[in-house]
């Protein structure tokens, strides 16, 4: 009697464990289309890929319910491609993700209110990252809802122009674990709100206060932050020479400082600053005072300085030469759109900075092939060179 052929279909993935498939998916992570193609090989792989997915960037908020049902282990949700996110959308996320959700990006989303944020904060107890940038309609009521996310560590509120010191105070009291907060362009926040953040949130590592109407009154509280490493004061026009004098006695942990577009700061204020921040590694002075010999002499105390951003500044050959002499550990130098960069000044830097990795000379129209020859001969470890809009310079000069 003939043996009947088995009707069962042979599936080679039956012999693979989920861990092996997870490893394969990890290697496909850089290209989402590869991962999608892999997931439709068979039903088993389709199901395993759903368990593996941790980051999700949907295109339409109305499909959130079905998408989150398909991917139950998502811990980071990027809704920046969904302009219309309502309170109902946030309720769906809160009910579906619950404690698994750790980060959500609402930086380009609108139409939600404090009710949706409150539900999200209460249901998603492990939420540590929240981006509300560009939510220009949010007010203190919404900020109070955010304050219910007790485990929040990273918060972006850029351009939330209607949130005042009251709302920031609620966040400061409720979110004591904050390590990063960006208040860029929150123009209704003053010294009071910044002081509350500095006093209540002791674990702050990164603080962005760009374009806030603050003065030196909030600086003493900021300098008492024991873990502060990155401070951004871009466009803070209330910070002047006297203000930087306060920094002379504090913030030994500071590694990055941005005081770009602060027109009231000269070499005098910078000298006070550098005497109190000797461990500084990155300094941004873009669109500020002219880079003269007096200003660059202030950098001589910064022995650990690795990055200097001077975009849009007026520079002198003497100033550039001083940078080359004092900053011996430089890894990055940006001179984009700087007026006054010549072959003499640039060559004096690159001849000394053998370990330079990144150099930006965009729109430096006075330099010639002499500078390029010095760059290629001296900076052998260079990995990034930005040179667009240098009229005579083409790729053949690098050959």
TrEMBL record:
A GO cellular component entry from the record: SCF ubiquitin ligase complex
Residue stretches making up the F-box/LRR-repeat protein 15-like leucin rich repeat domain: 123-266, 298-385
SMART domains: LRR_CC (SM00367)
GO biological process, one term: SCF-dependent proteasomal ubiquitin-dependent protein catabolic process
Top-level division of the source organism's lineage: Eukaryota
This protein's name: F-box/LRR-repeat protein 3
């Amino acid at each position: 009697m003939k043996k009947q052929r088995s009707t069962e279909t042979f599936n080679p993935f039956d012999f693979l464990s989920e861990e092996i498939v997870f490893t394969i998916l990890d290697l496909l992570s850089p290209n989402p289309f590869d991962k999608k193609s892999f997931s439709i090989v068979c039903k088993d792989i389709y199901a395993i890929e759903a368990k593996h997915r941790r980051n999700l960037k949907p295109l339409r908020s109305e499909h959130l319910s079905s998408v989150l049902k398909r991917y139950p282990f998502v811990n980071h949700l990027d809704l920046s491609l969904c302009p219309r996110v309502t309170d109902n959308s946030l309720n769906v996320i809160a009910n579906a993700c619950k404690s698994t959700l750790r980060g959500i990006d609402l930086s380009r989303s609108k139409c939600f209110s404090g009710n949706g944020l409150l539900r999200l904060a209460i249901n998603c107890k492990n939420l540590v990252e929240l981006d509300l940038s560009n939510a220009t309609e949010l007010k203190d009521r919404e900020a109070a809802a955010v304050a219910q996310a007790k485990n929040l560590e990273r918060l972006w509120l850029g351009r939330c122009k209607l949130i005042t010191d009251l709302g920031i105070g609620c966040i400061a009291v409720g979110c004591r674990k904050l390590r990063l907060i960006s208040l860029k362009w929150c123009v209704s926040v003053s010294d009071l709100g910044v002081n509350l953040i500095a006093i209540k949130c002791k674990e702050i590592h990164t603080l962005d206060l760009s374009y806030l109407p603050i003065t030196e009154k909030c600086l003493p509280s900021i300098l008492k932050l024991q873990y502060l490493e990155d401070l951004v004061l871009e466009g803070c026009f209330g910070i002047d020479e006297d203000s930087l004098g306060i920094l002379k006695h504090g913030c030994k942990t500071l590694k990055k400082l941005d005081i770009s577009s602060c027109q009231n700061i000269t070499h005098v204020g910078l000298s006070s600053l550098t005497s109190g921040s000797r461990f500084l590694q990155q300094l941004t002075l873009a669109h500020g005072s002219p880079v003269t010999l007096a200003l660059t002499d202030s950098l001589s105390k910064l022995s650990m300085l690795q990055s200097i951003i001077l975009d849009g500044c007026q520079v002198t050959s003497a100033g550039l030469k001083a940078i080359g002499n004092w900053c011996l550990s430089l890894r990055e130098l940006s001179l984009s759109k700087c007026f006054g960069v010549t072959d003499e000044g640039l060559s004096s830097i690159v001849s000394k900075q053998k370990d330079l990795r990144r150099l930006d000379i965009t729109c430096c129209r006075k330099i010639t092939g002499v500078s390029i020859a010095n760059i290629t001969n001296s900076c052998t470890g260079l990995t990034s060179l930005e040179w667009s809009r240098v009229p005579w310079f083409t790729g053949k000069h690098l050959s």
